[in-house]
């Protein structure tokens, strides 16, 4: 278990994402309490934590959606909050719990994401076609997103994040309500993307998935990083799930509820 | 269980205050207003104690009937449907239907409109403080009447919520409802002219209404005061039957609503049709404009804010028909310009958290602003020009055309510029995406009002030069001032438009994340 300290890069001189002392308070509640993290370029990085741990808040601050109270975020050396437009060119973001422009068709929405980034019309059209095919939503490309199922909506949002071929992908809960076949499909796409040099950050609370998919992982709870490093370092011989429960420290509360056995 | 529902509603109301101090201010303003209305009505009812029986009967019955109609119509009209205790949220909690209905009906009285109705209704007993049976009758009538108010409003909201089987149907129907509402003015005016034509019509109308479900309960006190026990008995039965039928209807509607799952989309459609995205320039501005125009067409919330525009000429023509002069028609252009320009003042609020895409892609503020404003301008400009020029074919007073056109264009361009700033900085409380255009989420009413009225006041100042020129022309009668107005309106308007788009763009660049955080409050 290694908590990355400020100014100690892991193995690449410029990490894909470097967070330093990020903190955010909502009213009286401290959601993120000084998170520092280095995500090496070319890694498949998992961020795990219980509900309300501050995963989404941290990723929002790292991607320019939520202004941090303290701390900095750098994407490939570009300060997200000092040069937001430059940093956003490098990133593809799938935020969790936000709406989409769902009165557009799936195809229109992904096209919109491409055009907003100032891309060429032909390039956008070509990539939209390939993305829709790769994510297996071509059959519904002309349907309004509002009529999509939850899983298809996720896939369209993912396509919108991929359209400009970013160097860093930040995906908040990308597999929520996605069926297993589609999930395997998405994993394949992400694996290829990492193999060709891209960096992926996913947040999840499905430990098993993270253990199989990611090479690095950070365990976040109560707005702090409890452990970070390669998956093997963090899990330290145990399964990631056991290690997680041990770190977060609420493993022994299965007592009580005796009445549940009485039917 | 009924008590649980009541305390739940009470808790929700109190917690609503806690969300922000501004909300408290909004509620306080609403409360003061309601207090004023209630005190006025209560004083009137007490004063009617010394009026003759027929006048008192007429006032109470017609007033009560109006209250019932208002409870049915206002939730639809004023986006005020109270969804804090949405029945569909109780689907999984196996509350017995009877108790759920009782609880929800009684919970309907918690809140300003409910409480006001209760107080005013009970004070009808003061009007009939003439004999013991009359007071008792008035009290019974008040209870039956106010229950009818609440249950009828529940029936209407449940029926309209459950009416729609498909999203498309819902989209269309939610807009069509506006048409009679917008035309309400002319309709009511027509009825009133008929009424004022014959004296003694109102008591006659009240007697008639008192035999209908609308007025039966409110008539009990009056009938017993004048000793008409038989009529009172029959009307009590009518009122009771009304209430039972309403409850039964609500019961049936609710049962259906609870077991009917939301419509899930139709069969898949293959792509290939990019629509406006393929037509407009492939730039961020063009893309934003294409997206906005698609929404003007597809999102009922936008369409609902536009529906009033084609109906404006109808209203004004009606007005002119009554007064015999078409001179009022010339303000069609400026009014349409104002409505259309101001319609994008809450544009980002309509996006809700979908605005995250603009933030994530790093689209520049000025492109965002310009795209939205141009999308609105694309249809607003022709409409405003037609509305500004059209009336002169009736009035034939062509001397006024340049001035009116100048004012209209000035209002349109300045308004779009100002709206671009307002929506970049302030959020308004608007219906959520996919919801009915009627259904506003609970939220910061005070800020919404402040933004809307503050913005309009600023717009008034911005178009002051054009307004002054109109006045100068009407004083001097010299059409030259009209031509000057046309030049000033166009030049000043476009200048303010450009300035607004730029300032709004800069604010958006600087405060995008803060704006997004405000949007995330309601989602």
Describe the structure concisely.
The complex is a heterodimer of chains A (263) and B (523). With 263 residues, chain A is α/β, with parallel strands linked by helices. Helices cover 35% and strands 24% of the residues of chain A.
Word description of this protein:
The complex is a heterodimer of chains A (263) and B (523). Chain A is α/β, with parallel strands linked by helices. In chain A, 35% of the residues lie in helices and 24% in strands. A six-stranded mixed beta sheet of chain A has the order 6-7-8-3-9-10, with helices on both faces. A four-stranded antiparallel beta sheet of chain A has the order 2-1-4-5, covered by helices on one side. In chain A, helix 3 (106-116) packs across helix 4 and helix 3 (106-116) runs parallel beside helix 5. The model of chain A is unreliable at 1-12 (pLDDT under 50). Chain B is an all-alpha fold and 523 residues long. In chain B, helix 21 (365-389) runs antiparallel to helix 23. At the A-B interface, helix 2, helix 3 and helix 4 of A face helix 15, helix 20 and helix 26 of B.
């Amino acid at each position: 278990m290694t908590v990355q300290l400020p100014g100690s890069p892991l193995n690449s001189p410029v990490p894909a994402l470097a967070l330093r002392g990020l903190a955010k308070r909502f009213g009286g509640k401290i959601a993120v309490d000084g998170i520092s993290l280095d995500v090496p370029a070319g890694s498949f990085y998992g961020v795990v934590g219980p509900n309300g741990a501050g995963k989404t808040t941290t990723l929002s601050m790292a991607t320019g959606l939520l202004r941090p109270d303290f701390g900095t975020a750098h994407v490939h050396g570009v300060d997200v909050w000092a040069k937001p437009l430059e940093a956003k060119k490098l990133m593809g973001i799938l935020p969790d719990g936000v709406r989409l422009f769902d009165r557009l068709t799936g195809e229109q929405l992904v096209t919109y994401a491409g055009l907003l980034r100032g891309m060429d019309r032909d390039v956008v059209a070509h990539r939209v076609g390939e993305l829709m095919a790769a994510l297996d939503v071509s059959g519904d490309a002309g349907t309004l997103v509002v009529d999509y199922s939850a899983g298809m909506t996720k896939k369209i949002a993912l396509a919108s994040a991929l359209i400009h071929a970013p160097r860093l992908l930040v995906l908040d809960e990308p597999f929520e309500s996605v069926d297993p076949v589609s999930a395997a499909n998405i994993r394949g796409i992400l694996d290829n993307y990492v193999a060709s040099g891209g960096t992926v950050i996913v947040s999840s609370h499905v430990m098993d998935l993270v253990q199989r998919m990611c090479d690095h992982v950070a365990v976040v709870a109560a707005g702090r990083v409890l452990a970070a490093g390669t998956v093997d370092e963090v899990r330290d011989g145990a399964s990631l799930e056991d290690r997680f429960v041990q770190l977060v420290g609420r493993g022994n509360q299965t007592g009580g509820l005796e009445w549940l056995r009485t039917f | 269980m009924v008590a649980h529902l009541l305390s739940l509603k009470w808790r929700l109301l109190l917690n609503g205050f806690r969300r922000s101090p501004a909300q408290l201010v909004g509620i306080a303003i609403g409360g003061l207003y309601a207090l004023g209305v209630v005190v006025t009505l209560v004083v009137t009812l007490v004063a009617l104690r010394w009026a003759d029986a027929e006048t008192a009967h007429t006032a109470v019955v017609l007033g009560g009937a109006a209250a019932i109609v208002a409870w049915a119509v206002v939730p639809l009209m004023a986006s005020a449907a109270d969804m804090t205790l949405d029945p569909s949220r109780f689907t999984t909690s196996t509350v017995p239907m009877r108790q759920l209905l009782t609880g929800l009906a009684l919970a309907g009285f918690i809140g300003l409109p409910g409480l006001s109705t209760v107080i005013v209704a009970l004070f009808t007993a003061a009007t009939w403080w003439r004999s013991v049976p009359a007071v008792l009758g008035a009290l019974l009538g008040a209870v039956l009447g106010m229950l009818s108010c609440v249950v009828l409003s529940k029936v209407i909201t449940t029926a309209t919520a459950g009416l729609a089987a498909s999203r498309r149907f819902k989209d269309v129907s939610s807009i069509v409802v506006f048409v009679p509402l917008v035309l309400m003015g002319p309709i009511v005016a027509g009825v009133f002219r008929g009424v004022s034509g014959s004296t003694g019509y109102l008591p006659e109308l009240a007697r008639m209404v008192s035999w209908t479900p609308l007025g039966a309960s409110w008539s009990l006190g009056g009938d017993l005061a004048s000793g008409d026990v038989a009529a009172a008995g029959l009307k009590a039965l009518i009122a009771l039957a009304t209430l039972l039928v309403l409850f039964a209807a609500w019961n049936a509607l609710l049962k259906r609503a609870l077991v009917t799952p939301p419509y899930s989309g139709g069969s898949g459609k293959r792509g290939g049709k990019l629509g406006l995205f393929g037509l407009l320039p492939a730039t961020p501005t063009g893309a934003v404009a294409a997206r906005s125009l698609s929404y003007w067409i597809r999102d009922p919330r936008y369409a609902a804010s536009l529906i009033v525009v084609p109906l404006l000429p109808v209203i004004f023509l009606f007005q002119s028909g009554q007064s015999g002069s078409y001179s009022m028609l010339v303000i069609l252009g400026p009014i349409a310009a104002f409505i259309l320009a101001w319609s994008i003042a809450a544009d980002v609020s309509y996006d809700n958290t979908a605005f995250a895409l603009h933030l994530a892609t790093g689209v520049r503020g000025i492109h965002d602003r310009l795209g939205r404003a141009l999308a609105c301008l694309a249809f607003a400009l022709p409409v405003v020009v037609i509305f500004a020029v059209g009336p002169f074919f009736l009035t034939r007073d062509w001397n006024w055309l340049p001035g009116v056109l100048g004012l209209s264009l000035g209002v349109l361009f300045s308004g779009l510029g100002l709206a671009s700033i307002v929506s970049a900085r302030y959020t308004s409380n608007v219906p959520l995406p996919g919801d009915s255009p009627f259904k506003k989420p609970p939220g910061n009413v005070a800020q919404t009002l402040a933004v809307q009225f503050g913005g309009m006041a600023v717009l008034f100042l911005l178009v002051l030069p054009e307004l002054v020129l109109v006045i100068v022309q009407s004083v001097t009668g010299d059409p030259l001032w009209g031509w000057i107005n046309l030049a000033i309106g166009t030049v000043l308007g476009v200048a303010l438009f450009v300035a607004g788009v730029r300032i709004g763009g800069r604010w958006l660049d600087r405060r995008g994340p803060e704006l997004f955080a405000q949007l995330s409050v309601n989602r």
